[in-house]
From TrEMBL:
Residues 5-237 form the ABC transporter domain. GO terms for biological process: L-amino acid transport. This is Branched-chain amino acid transport system ATP-binding protein. Keywords: Amino-acid transport, ATP-binding, Cell membrane, Membrane, Nucleotide-binding, Transport. It comes from Pigmentiphaga litoralis.
Length: 237
């Protein structure tokens, strides 16, 4: 598998707080990579840096051979690096259809947009049923599905997710993870930030554990599920 994104020495600080302290990782094309760790470890900050939404203080982010460091968030999305926002961030007073259409607003290949909409309906039949309803009336799980669907409408080459399992019932979490696996099988590269360590490691080919802004462990998802240090710290012994 070739490297789609290579992150080297990434540093991000908020004033005097060093949230990310010079981390290295790579995302391989066609794989699910996960970044796990506890509250405040710096996971969200790392994702925001990849999307260009926070300024990095050092290091480089190279996507498909191009340094993203100087690009605006808008240009980064156009390159195909698309983030599903934490807390969904869907537009609750707009319809499901309008939310999905918004995901595609920067695209110039309008003819392909219709086909991608059909694909989103295939992945999330519930969204098709509720197409003309207000997004704010969807359940938490449906809103997360809409947020993922909207990101897919931007035609990502790399999909970034920040805790898609947050606040959802276990059965809905299973469903969301099943769909992530399906999208990945279709070829999409995924970078998944999660506090739900067990579920994330189960679906990830590659995993990194972030502690206090530094990478503490890395390996395949399967390896880390069996790693004593990780089991003790994150999986309840
Ligand atoms: P969570 O799961 O709670 O989102 P996280 O692993 O994603 O945790 P971050 O949100 O990246 O961690 O936070 C990393 C560190 O940076 C924490 O110490 C946090 O308090 C701090 N931090 C995050 N955002 C800001 C901000 N906008 N201003 C100042 N400090 C911040």
């Amino acid at each position: 598998m070739s490297t789609l994104m290579k992150v080297s020495g990434l540093k991000v600080a908020y004033g005097h707080i060093e949230a990310v302290k010079g981390i290295d990782f790579e995302l391989r094309e066609g794989e699910i990579t996960t970044l796990v760790g506890s509250n405040g470890a710096g996971k969200s900050t790392t994702l925001l840096a990849l999307s260009g939404l926070v300024k990095k203080n050092g290091g480089s982010i190279v996507f498909d051979g191009e340094d993203l460091g100087k690009l605006s968030p808008h240009k980064i999305v156009q390159r195909g690096v698309v983030q599903v926002a934490e807390g969904r961030a869907i537009l609750t007073t707009m319809t499901v259809r309008e939310n999905l259409e918004l995901g595609a607003y920067t695209r110039k290949d309008r003819s392909a947009v219709g086909a991608d909409l059909e694909h989103v309906f295939h992945l999330f039949p519930r969204l098709k049923e509720r197409l003309d309803g207000m997004a704010g009336n969807l359940s938490g799980g449906e809103q997360q599905m809409l947020a993922i669907g909207r990101a897919l409408m931007a035609k990502p080459r790399l999909l970034l997710l920040d805790e898609p399992s947050m606040g959802l019932a276990p059965i809905i979490v299973q469903e969301i993870f099943r769909i992530l696996r399906e999208i990945n099988r279709e070829g999409l590269t995924i970078f998944l930030v999660e506090q739900n360590v067990r579920q994330a490691l189960k679906i990830a080919q590659r995993a990194y554990v972030l502690e206090n802004g530094s990478i503490a462990l890395s390996g395949s998802g399967q390896e880390l599920l069996k790693d004593d240090r990780l089991v003790e710290a994150y999986l309840g012994g």
